[in-house]
Every structure is written in structure tokens, then in C-alpha cells.
């Protein structure tokens, strides 16, 4: 039986961890500096958080390296790591209300999404990699009978993970779960907009039995802490999720330091293609609305370009506009709210500037376009839809990362594919049609890491996620993610 939670009362009882977690303990930044962690719900300061810089990153990396080299985690058997990670998953599940509340207060998403969506996915992610790690086998190469070649996957060493603010704990779990399962040590740099859940989950990791120094969290700003982690010569691999612009910096940092392995999951501009022969156009409309307005459009694979076959354009767009009203922002601490706040005022202003740019370029603003709920002191934008958009316009080309939908008409399948692929991004594409042959043909033609057909669900933890082109490379989720955190060793034995 579900018991109603008074989330505002729970918020008042929260104990917020606000220091870095290095070497198994909470510690202040070496400089003593802090930065305010402000809630987008109402503009209130939640905590003053340790502002880590290069010195703190070095402390965290040194701690991670020591733990790795001593083998307290890396030399444990897969079954031993499995037991600890399963306990870790249990603790995340046990503390899911607290972690979800931290996510909502910190970045503004509805509590129902944080609790019933994100935290369930985080628990599943940790549990899945825990269960997977003792089921992976190494290889024996086909050599002459006079030799034996062993091909083994070894943990890569110290992993740096830099994650965004839109799904703070889930994006972190996609990194730390496979990295830890493979036997690595980790330094996690959460986004400065949303550091709170990462600090709490590090404490739970220690409680589960992950040894000191194996899981470190260093909050701070990208240009200081993030850059220091990317440039550190004792970091063996760097996993990043965020903008394409910042992702390119990590490639540069790797080249200028120790050529560390870099994996990137960057921006997206997902085309959502709807054909007139779609069997359930209402389902497609619901997918279109949810695809752009869920999490206030702050999703890397948000379906921000709606490509509609011209002969159904008007009635389909009318239905999407109706559904958009269900995503008007409300109180994120109300379990009935479907859409909450933007992460902060900076992002709110950025999105509003794109809306203004769309109008200046000649697109037709058909609904939304304004900041709302100003009386709360928070950061909220109405669901916004543009029609008569050209794919050359900024709102169709740039990743807005907000609740802004660009609608584009097409006449033929070939035209739809050309528009969809005319982007520097290639993270995901959505396709709606009742013609199976056409669906297969178009799916193969679309340059995207994931193509969904007649749904908006790109799959759970069991399938890989990542992109083509400037959406980055490397894959999160699935067993393919293990490759980012391991390296192959060949041992060739001759029998004389």
C-alpha cells in the first residue's frame, strides 16, 4: 500500500551533506571555499557546498590511486564486489525518498518523477551491474597447440566521471555502477547545480562496504574541478555526459595530459518523425508531448524536432498543443505535478532567449513562450511550441535543453530522412509509421545511436545508449559500458 508522503515536512527534516567525500570521509575544500546550492523551486539556498579545485581533485585522485594499487577493491573477486554492490543497491532503495527529495529540491524535477522514475532506475542500474560482473568471461585465442593466449579484461584504474544536472544521480549511476563493478576506483564530479544526491550516495557506498578511497565525490565548477580532473595525469579514464562544447574540452585535456581514455555522451536534437499512416496517432501525439516536455525538456534525447507528414500536420499539431497543457509547470513537491522547474535562472534565461530568437527568425509561436509562476521565486517556463519552422533556424539546430518544440512539415520519406539527418547531432531518432518495411528502411538511414519505432522508450539498462556525430562516442548502459572501464591484456604462453 502506498503511503502519502508530506514532502515539505520531509524537506524540513533533511540533513544535507555539503562537503566533499574523499578517502571515505566528508572533508571541506582545501581552500575553505564554498558555493551556494540554490533551489529552482523558490530561489532558497539549500546549502553552502564545498568548492573543490585542483588541489582537492589531486587529493581525490591520490586517494583513488592508493585504493586501486593496494587492491582493496580491484583485487576482490567478482563475487565479492557483487555482494557489496547489491548491498549498495539495497541502501539506495531504502533511502530512495531522501535521495529523490534531494534531486527535486536541487534541480526542480517533480517529486513523482524523481522517486518513481529516477531512483528506481538508479537502483536497477547498480543491481544490474552487480549481477552482471560475475557472469563475464575472458577469452582464449585460437593459437597453435604449442602456445596459449589468454585475453583478459582488467580494470582500467582510476576513473573520473563528470555528470550533468538534468538527471543528477541516474547519470552518475550509469558511470559509477559499471566502473565499480569492473574493479576501478572513482572520482565523481557532479554538476555544480545539483551536487547533493551524489554526496549522499557516496556515504551510502561507504556504508555498503565499498572501501575508503574507492568512491570519491568532489563538487565544484567545471572550469576548475572539472578541468583539473580532465587534465590529471593519474586519471586513466574520463567519462563525461553534458554538452558537446564541454565534451570537446575533455578531448583536449586528454591530449594535453596523459592521453587518458575519454568517453563522451553529448548533445542531441532528436527528430520525431510522424507519418500519416501511423496506426495510433493519439499515441504518437502523447509521445511527442512527453518527448519534449518531460523533465522540462532538460533531456539530451528530448524529441525537440517534430517532423510531421504534411497531410496530417494541422490536426496532429492541434492534438499535441492540447496535450501540452497537461505539462504546465506546477509545484514540484506535489505528487500530481507532471512538470516542475528549470534547473536555475541561467538556464531559464537561455531558453527564453532561444524562444525570442525563434520568433525573430520567422517561426510561428503557437503556444507558450513565457516564464510563469514568477511569484514563487522559482524558475518555470510554459510548454512552448513553434510551427512553420525551417531546419536552418537556430531553434531547429541548437540544443535548447528546455520545453521548446519545433514543428517541421515534410512530404516524402526521403525528405523526412534528409531533414532528420541534417544536424550535427545523432543521439536518438523517433519514428512513427504502420508500414514495417518503411520503418526498417528509414531506421537504417537515420544517423542516430538509437532509433525508436512507434514508441518513445529507448529501452532500459539492458540496451546501450550513446550517439553518432557530435553527440559523442562510447556507450552507457548494457554490458557494452564495461568496455569503457576495462582494458584488454593478452598473456601469450609458449610451451617450447
Helix content: 25-40%
Q: What's the CATH architecture name of the largest domain?
A: 3-Layer(aba) Sandwich
Shape by Cα distribution? globular
Number of structurally distinct domains: 2
Estimated structural class: alpha/beta
**What proportion strand?**
15-25%
Count of runs of 4 or more consecutive helical residues: 15
CATH superfamily of the largest domain: Aldehyde Dehydrogenase, Chain A, domain 1
Mean of all residue-level pLDDT scores: 97
The CATH class of the largest domain is identified as Alpha Beta
Question: Which characteristics define this entry?
Answer:
7-stranded mixed beta sheet, alpha/beta, 21% strand, 6-stranded mixed beta sheet, 496 residues, 24 strands
Q: Describe it for me?
A:
By secondary structure, the protein is of the alpha/beta class. The protein folds into two domains: 7-266 and 472-490, Aldehyde Dehydrogenase, Chain A, domain 1, CATH 3.40.605.10; 271-469, Aldehyde Dehydrogenase, Chain A, domain 2, CATH 3.40.309. It contains 15 helices and 24 strands. It has helices spanning 7-13, 54-70, 78-94, 96-107, 111-132, 168-181, 196-208, 222-231, 244-256, 281-293, 313-324, 345-360, 394-397, 413-421, 436-445; strands at 20-22, 25-27, 34-38, 45-50, 139-140, 147-155, 158-162, 185-189, 215-217, 237-241, 261-265, 271-274, 305-309, 364-367, 371-372, 380-381, 384-387, 404-410, 425-426, 428-432, 450-453, 468-469, 472-473, 486-494. A seven-stranded mixed β-sheet has the order 14-17-18-13-12-20-21, sandwiched between helices. Helix 2 (54-70) runs parallel beside helix 8 (222-231), helix 3 (78-94) crosses helix 7 and helix 4 crosses helix 5 (111-132). The model has no long low-confidence stretch (mean pLDDT 97).
